[in-house]
Design goal:
With 279 residues, this protein is an alpha/beta fold. The protein is built from twelve helices and nine strands. Strands 3-2-1-4-5-6 form a six-stranded parallel β-sheet, sandwiched between helices. Strands 7-8-9 form a three-stranded mixed β-sheet. The radius of gyration is 21 Å and the shape is globular.
Amino acid sequence: MTATPLKIGFIGLGIMGAPMALHLIAAGHQLFVTTRSKLPEAVAATSAVRCANAAEVARQAEVVFLMVPDTPDVERVLFSEGGVAQGLVPGRTVVDMSSISPIETQAFAQKIAALGCDYVDAPVSGGEVGAKAASLTIMVGGTEAAFERVKPLFALMGKNITHVGPAGAGQTTKVANQIIVALNIEAVGEALAIAPPTLRRRQREIIEAERDGRGGVVAEGRDITTVVAPDADVRILLTADERAWLDAYHAKTREELSPLISDAQTRQWLERATAPFER
């Protein structure tokens, strides 16, 4: 039990949201929840109160957390009929821990601020394992005052918690994090591709040999051997459709990040990192 239990809203109880919510409950906070799917049994067995919609959650809670899949989902939860915005009163705090568009995040923050409330974007890294272990990395955007207000709650869900700037900065940092992770995975694939044919079926052993050296994989808490198919030539792991999808994702990333980068050299790096695949 914490010294000052809070009334907390939590919207989105999937593989990430459910364990995160459970950590808040275990610390003694009263949760008001809603989710578009069946309420997880582990959450249903607690003191959490299920609400009819997001507006009802917001009416009950001092701090409202969101953990949903994508930008349109966040917008719907916040601003649709029965959304969070309809239940807010001045002085409340909305914390979006989803991984979404930095630019749209800034727009959402402005709308919530107009209602007299704080908006914090706090995407996470660490996956389901980190969510269950309360060891997530949390990248936070928002005012200093709002960050300090919710930091004790972040500490119940994560270990590496950093305030990186104003609204939208957390999402920008998360995009940068994903680029780094993707490039590391790609580098592992390229490294394995140069192995002679007789070693291509020993990829797991090669990775183990490199794990603690200078070539160690930078993917904390992950088993990189699960990313690369054990019996495949890594150069042909992506289908044409997968490459097309990734090209579209890279284009969207460039579109969203370029306006936020003033340094020409950094922008050039972004263009190279998200360049289309050769056809």
